[in-house]
Protein backbone atom coordinates (compact mmCIF):
# COMPACT_ATOMS: atom_id res chain seq x y z
CA UNK A 1 0.00 0.00 0.00
CA UNK A 2 1.38 3.38 -0.98
CA UNK A 3 0.29 6.99 -1.36
CA UNK A 4 -0.37 7.88 -5.00
CA UNK A 5 1.12 11.38 -4.97
CA UNK A 6 0.03 14.92 -4.12
CA UNK A 7 -3.77 15.25 -3.78
CA UNK A 8 -4.10 18.98 -3.07
CA UNK A 9 -2.45 21.92 -1.36
CA UNK A 10 -4.50 24.34 0.76
CA UNK A 11 -3.31 27.90 1.37
CA UNK A 12 -4.57 31.15 2.91
CA UNK A 13 -5.84 34.29 1.19
CA UNK A 14 -7.14 37.50 2.74
CA UNK A 15 -9.32 38.38 -0.25
CA UNK A 16 -11.36 35.79 -2.16
CA UNK A 17 -12.19 38.18 -5.02
CA UNK A 18 -8.57 39.13 -5.78
CA UNK A 19 -7.56 35.50 -5.34
CA UNK A 20 -10.15 34.43 -7.92
CA UNK A 21 -8.93 37.07 -10.36
CA UNK A 22 -5.31 35.94 -10.13
CA UNK A 23 -5.75 32.17 -10.28
CA UNK A 24 -8.36 32.16 -13.05
CA UNK A 25 -7.56 35.26 -15.12
CA UNK A 26 -3.76 35.19 -14.85
CA UNK A 27 -2.88 31.53 -14.21
CA UNK A 28 -5.83 30.22 -16.21
CA UNK A 29 -6.85 27.57 -13.69
CA UNK A 30 -10.51 26.58 -13.41
CA UNK A 31 -12.50 27.30 -10.28
CA UNK A 32 -14.07 23.87 -9.80
CA UNK A 33 -15.74 24.57 -6.47
CA UNK A 34 -16.87 27.71 -4.68
CA UNK A 35 -17.66 26.54 -1.18
CA UNK A 36 -17.10 27.48 2.44
CA UNK A 37 -14.60 26.49 5.07
CA UNK A 38 -16.39 23.55 6.69
CA UNK A 39 -14.81 24.46 10.03
CA UNK A 40 -15.89 28.11 9.68
CA UNK A 41 -18.69 28.49 7.08
CA UNK A 42 -18.65 32.28 7.35
CA UNK A 43 -15.72 32.42 4.86
CA UNK A 44 -15.06 31.03 1.41
CA UNK A 45 -13.07 27.95 0.46
CA UNK A 46 -12.08 28.15 -3.22
CA UNK A 47 -10.81 25.17 -5.24
CA UNK A 48 -8.79 25.66 -8.46
CA UNK A 49 -7.82 22.71 -10.62
CA UNK A 50 -7.81 21.27 -14.13
CA UNK A 51 -10.92 20.91 -16.31
CA UNK A 52 -12.80 18.59 -13.92
CA UNK A 53 -10.81 18.82 -10.68
CA UNK A 54 -8.85 15.60 -11.00
CA UNK A 55 -6.99 14.49 -7.85
CA UNK A 56 -3.49 15.93 -7.94
CA UNK A 57 -4.49 19.13 -9.77
CA UNK A 58 -6.20 21.00 -6.95
CA UNK A 59 -4.91 24.16 -5.26
CA UNK A 60 -7.34 25.48 -2.64
CA UNK A 61 -7.61 28.66 -0.58
CA UNK A 62 -9.26 29.41 2.73
CA UNK A 63 -10.31 33.04 2.94
CA UNK A 64 -9.29 34.68 6.22
CA UNK A 65 -10.16 38.38 5.70
CA UNK A 66 -8.08 39.68 8.61
CA UNK A 67 -5.02 37.54 7.90
CA UNK A 68 -1.78 39.46 8.40
CA UNK A 69 1.29 39.03 6.24
CA UNK A 70 3.33 35.84 6.42
CA UNK A 71 6.68 35.92 8.20
CA UNK A 72 8.53 33.12 6.35
CA UNK A 73 10.46 30.56 8.31
CA UNK A 74 10.79 27.01 9.55
CA UNK A 75 8.29 24.26 10.35
CA UNK A 76 6.28 25.12 7.25
CA UNK A 77 5.38 24.36 3.66
CA UNK A 78 7.46 26.91 1.79
CA UNK A 79 6.87 26.03 -1.85
CA UNK A 80 3.98 24.87 -4.03
CA UNK A 81 4.66 23.77 -7.60
CA UNK A 82 2.33 23.83 -10.59
CA UNK A 83 3.10 21.60 -13.54
CA UNK A 84 3.16 22.75 -17.17
CA UNK A 85 3.55 20.40 -20.16
CA UNK A 86 7.10 21.13 -21.28
CA UNK A 87 10.03 23.54 -21.38
CA UNK A 88 8.49 25.52 -24.24
CA UNK A 89 5.51 26.36 -22.05
CA UNK A 90 7.79 28.18 -19.61
CA UNK A 91 8.68 30.73 -22.28
CA UNK A 92 4.96 31.43 -22.72
CA UNK A 93 4.62 31.97 -18.97
CA UNK A 94 7.58 34.35 -18.79
CA UNK A 95 5.84 36.56 -21.36
CA UNK A 96 2.52 36.30 -19.54
CA UNK A 97 4.05 37.11 -16.16
CA UNK A 98 5.73 40.17 -17.64
CA UNK A 99 2.41 41.22 -19.21
CA UNK A 100 0.56 40.95 -15.90
CA UNK A 101 3.47 42.27 -13.79
CA UNK A 102 3.82 39.03 -11.82
CA UNK A 103 7.01 38.91 -9.76
CA UNK A 104 9.24 36.04 -10.96
CA UNK A 105 12.86 34.86 -11.07
CA UNK A 106 13.08 33.83 -14.72
CA UNK A 107 13.69 30.30 -15.99
CA UNK A 108 16.15 28.35 -13.84
CA UNK A 109 16.89 24.68 -13.20
CA UNK A 110 16.03 22.67 -10.10
CA UNK A 111 16.49 18.92 -9.60
CA UNK A 112 17.12 18.47 -13.33
CA UNK A 113 13.96 20.30 -14.43
CA UNK A 114 13.36 23.76 -15.80
CA UNK A 115 11.31 25.93 -13.41
CA UNK A 116 10.07 29.46 -12.82
CA UNK A 117 9.83 30.61 -9.21
CA UNK A 118 7.18 33.32 -8.81
CA UNK A 119 4.89 35.00 -6.28
CA UNK A 120 1.22 35.89 -6.41
CA UNK A 121 -0.19 39.23 -5.21
CA UNK A 122 -0.04 38.02 -1.58
CA UNK A 123 3.51 36.66 -1.92
CA UNK A 124 2.40 33.05 -2.07
CA UNK A 125 5.59 31.11 -2.91
CA UNK A 126 4.91 29.31 -6.19
CA UNK A 127 6.86 27.49 -8.88
CA UNK A 128 6.02 26.47 -12.42
CA UNK A 129 7.78 23.18 -13.18
CA UNK A 130 8.23 21.61 -16.62
CA UNK A 131 6.90 18.10 -17.20
CA UNK A 132 9.21 17.74 -20.23
CA UNK A 133 10.74 14.46 -19.05
CA UNK A 134 8.15 13.33 -16.51
CA UNK A 135 7.68 9.54 -16.42
CA UNK A 136 5.61 9.30 -13.26
CA UNK A 137 2.11 10.34 -12.22
CA UNK A 138 0.23 11.75 -15.20
CA UNK A 139 -0.99 15.34 -15.18
CA UNK A 140 -4.51 16.56 -15.83
CA UNK A 141 -5.94 18.61 -18.69
CA UNK A 142 -6.41 22.40 -18.75
CA UNK A 143 -9.95 23.69 -19.15
CA UNK A 144 -10.70 24.49 -22.80
CA UNK A 145 -12.27 27.81 -21.74
CA UNK A 146 -9.19 28.86 -19.78
CA UNK A 147 -8.14 32.53 -19.83
CA UNK A 148 -4.58 31.35 -20.50
CA UNK A 149 -3.15 29.18 -23.29
CA UNK A 150 -4.61 25.67 -23.16
CA UNK A 151 -1.56 24.26 -24.96
CA UNK A 152 0.77 25.71 -22.32
CA UNK A 153 -1.65 25.50 -19.41
CA UNK A 154 -1.21 24.24 -15.86
CA UNK A 155 -1.83 20.48 -15.66
CA UNK A 156 -1.55 19.81 -11.95
CA UNK A 157 0.45 20.07 -8.76
CA UNK A 158 4.16 19.40 -8.71
CA UNK A 159 6.63 18.96 -5.84
CA UNK A 160 5.86 20.48 -2.46
CA UNK A 161 8.75 21.92 -0.44
CA UNK A 162 8.93 21.58 3.35
CA UNK A 163 11.37 23.65 5.42
CA UNK A 164 12.40 22.33 8.84
CA UNK A 165 15.17 22.94 11.40
CA UNK A 166 15.81 19.21 11.88
CA UNK A 167 15.29 16.75 9.03
CA UNK A 168 15.50 13.40 10.81
CA UNK A 169 12.04 13.28 12.43
CA UNK A 170 10.32 14.33 9.20
CA UNK A 171 12.35 11.84 7.16
CA UNK A 172 11.32 9.09 9.58
CA UNK A 173 7.62 9.83 9.05
CA UNK A 174 7.96 10.14 5.28
CA UNK A 175 9.94 6.90 4.85
CA UNK A 176 9.00 4.67 7.79
CA UNK A 177 5.32 5.57 8.20
CA UNK A 178 4.25 6.88 4.80
CA UNK A 179 5.44 5.32 1.55
CA UNK A 180 8.11 7.78 0.44
CA UNK A 181 11.67 6.94 -0.61
CA UNK A 182 14.59 9.33 -0.87
CA UNK A 183 15.79 9.31 -4.48
CA UNK A 184 17.87 12.46 -5.02
CA UNK A 185 19.18 15.74 -3.69
CA UNK A 186 20.13 19.08 -5.22
CA UNK A 187 22.03 22.17 -4.05
CA UNK A 188 20.21 24.78 -2.01
CA UNK A 189 19.97 28.20 -3.67
CA UNK A 190 20.96 29.66 -0.29
CA UNK A 191 24.71 29.88 0.31
CA UNK A 192 26.23 27.50 2.91
CA UNK A 193 23.01 25.49 3.37
CA UNK A 194 22.55 21.72 3.16
CA UNK A 195 21.37 20.09 -0.06
CA UNK A 196 17.60 19.81 -0.49
CA UNK A 197 16.43 16.18 -0.30
CA UNK A 198 13.92 14.67 -2.76
CA UNK A 199 11.40 12.00 -1.70
CA UNK A 200 8.92 10.22 -3.98
CA UNK A 201 5.93 7.94 -3.55
CA UNK A 202 3.78 5.77 -5.81
CA UNK A 203 4.62 6.04 -9.50
CA UNK A 204 6.97 8.90 -8.73
CA UNK A 205 7.57 11.82 -11.05
CA UNK A 206 6.63 15.46 -10.80
CA UNK A 207 3.25 14.87 -9.14
CA UNK A 208 4.53 12.62 -6.36
CA UNK A 209 7.47 14.43 -4.78
CA UNK A 210 8.24 16.12 -1.47
CA UNK A 211 11.38 18.27 -1.27
CA UNK A 212 12.86 18.70 2.21
CA UNK A 213 14.95 21.76 3.06
CA UNK A 214 16.87 22.14 6.32
CA UNK A 215 17.29 25.71 7.62
CA UNK A 216 18.74 25.87 11.11
CA UNK A 217 19.14 29.64 10.75
CA UNK A 218 15.44 30.51 10.50
CA UNK A 219 12.78 31.15 13.16
CA UNK A 220 9.47 29.35 13.07
CA UNK A 221 7.21 30.68 10.31
CA UNK A 222 4.35 32.97 11.35
CA UNK A 223 1.60 32.13 8.86
CA UNK A 224 -0.77 34.63 7.29
CA UNK A 225 -2.03 35.57 3.84
CA UNK A 226 0.20 33.89 1.29
CA UNK A 227 1.14 30.94 3.50
CA UNK A 228 0.26 27.26 3.03
CA UNK A 229 -2.05 25.59 5.53
CA UNK A 230 -1.48 21.92 4.63
CA UNK A 231 -0.57 19.41 1.94
CA UNK A 232 -2.71 16.37 1.17
CA UNK A 233 -1.57 13.07 -0.31
CA UNK A 234 -3.67 10.75 -2.48
CA UNK A 235 -5.28 7.55 -1.17
CA UNK A 236 -7.19 5.23 -3.49
CA UNK A 237 -10.42 4.76 -1.50
CA UNK A 238 -12.17 4.67 1.88
CA UNK A 239 -10.84 1.21 2.75
CA UNK A 240 -7.24 2.27 2.27
CA UNK A 241 -7.82 5.46 4.26
CA UNK A 242 -8.96 3.37 7.22
CA UNK A 243 -5.79 1.28 6.93
CA UNK A 244 -3.72 4.46 7.00
CA UNK A 245 -5.58 5.56 10.13
CA UNK A 246 -4.56 2.31 11.79
CA UNK A 247 -0.94 2.84 10.70
CA UNK A 248 -0.91 6.30 12.27
CA UNK A 249 -2.30 4.87 15.52
CA UNK A 250 0.32 2.10 15.50
CA UNK A 251 3.03 4.72 15.10
CA UNK A 252 1.57 6.85 17.89
CA UNK A 253 0.82 9.79 15.61
CA UNK A 254 -2.27 11.66 16.91
CA UNK A 255 -4.78 12.21 14.14
CA UNK A 256 -8.19 13.70 13.39
CA UNK A 257 -9.92 10.45 12.60
CA UNK A 258 -11.61 10.19 9.23
CA UNK A 259 -13.45 13.39 8.26
CA UNK A 260 -16.09 13.47 5.52
CA UNK A 261 -15.41 16.48 3.30
CA UNK A 262 -18.12 15.27 0.91
CA UNK A 263 -15.94 15.60 -2.22
CA UNK A 264 -13.40 13.30 -0.57
CA UNK A 265 -12.70 11.81 2.85
CA UNK A 266 -9.72 13.07 4.81
CA UNK A 267 -7.40 12.17 7.65
CA UNK A 268 -5.22 14.87 9.26
CA UNK A 269 -2.09 14.66 11.39
CA UNK A 270 1.04 16.66 12.16
CA UNK A 271 4.51 15.25 11.59
CA UNK A 272 7.16 15.92 14.29
CA UNK A 273 8.14 19.33 12.86
CA UNK A 274 4.47 20.34 13.22
CA UNK A 275 3.66 20.52 9.50
CA UNK A 276 0.05 19.51 8.83
CA UNK A 277 -0.38 16.51 6.51
CA UNK A 278 -3.66 15.21 5.15
CA UNK A 279 -4.44 11.88 3.48
CA UNK A 280 -7.38 12.20 1.06
CA UNK A 281 -9.37 9.77 -1.05
CA UNK A 282 -9.48 10.21 -4.82
CA UNK A 283 -13.28 10.19 -4.86
CA UNK A 284 -16.09 10.90 -5.15
CA UNK A 285 -14.76 14.14 -6.70
CA UNK A 286 -15.80 17.71 -7.37
CA UNK A 287 -18.46 16.92 -9.98
CA UNK A 288 -20.64 15.42 -7.24
CA UNK A 289 -24.09 17.09 -7.41
CA UNK A 290 -22.84 19.78 -9.78
CA UNK A 291 -22.88 19.90 -13.58
CA UNK A 292 -19.34 19.60 -14.98
CA UNK A 293 -20.04 22.45 -17.44
CA UNK A 294 -20.93 24.81 -14.58
CA UNK A 295 -18.46 23.90 -11.85
CA UNK A 296 -17.64 26.74 -9.49
CA UNK A 297 -20.35 29.14 -10.68
CA UNK A 298 -22.68 28.80 -7.69
CA UNK A 299 -22.05 28.40 -3.97
CA UNK A 300 -21.72 24.65 -3.39
CA UNK A 301 -22.56 23.35 0.06
CA UNK A 302 -22.29 19.76 1.27
CA UNK A 303 -25.68 18.27 2.21
CA UNK A 304 -25.02 18.68 5.94
CA UNK A 305 -24.92 22.48 5.42
CA UNK A 306 -27.89 22.84 3.06
CA UNK A 307 -30.39 23.61 5.82
CA UNK A 308 -28.18 26.61 6.74
CA UNK A 309 -27.74 27.93 3.18
CA UNK A 310 -29.65 31.18 3.71
CA UNK A 311 -27.74 31.98 6.90
CA UNK A 312 -24.37 31.09 5.33
CA UNK A 313 -24.96 33.09 2.15
CA UNK A 314 -26.01 36.15 4.16
CA UNK A 315 -22.58 36.28 5.85
CA UNK A 316 -20.50 35.93 2.67
CA UNK A 317 -19.41 38.80 0.46
CA UNK A 318 -20.86 38.33 -3.05
CA UNK A 319 -18.31 36.74 -5.40
CA UNK A 320 -19.18 36.54 -9.09
CA UNK A 321 -17.47 33.45 -10.53
CA UNK A 322 -19.44 33.14 -13.75
CA UNK A 323 -16.95 35.02 -15.96
UniProtKB/TrEMBL annotation:
Protein name stated in the entry: Ring-cleaving dioxygenase
The lineage, from the top, is: Bacteria, Bacillati, Bacillota, Bacilli, Bacillales
Locate the VOC domain: which residues?
5-131, 156-282
Supply the CDD domains for this chain. Answer: PcpA_C_like
- The UniProt transmembrane annotation reads none
- What is a single molecular function from GO for this protein? dioxygenase activity
According to the lineage, what is the superkingdom? Answer: Bacteria
Q: Which UniProt keywords apply?
A: Dioxygenase, Oxidoreductase
Please name the InterPro entries in this protein's record: Extradiol_RC_dioxygenase, Glyas_Bleomycin-R_OHBP_Dase, Glyas_Fos-R_dOase_dom, VOC_core
Q: What Pfam families does UniProt report for this protein, alphabetically?
A: Glyoxalase
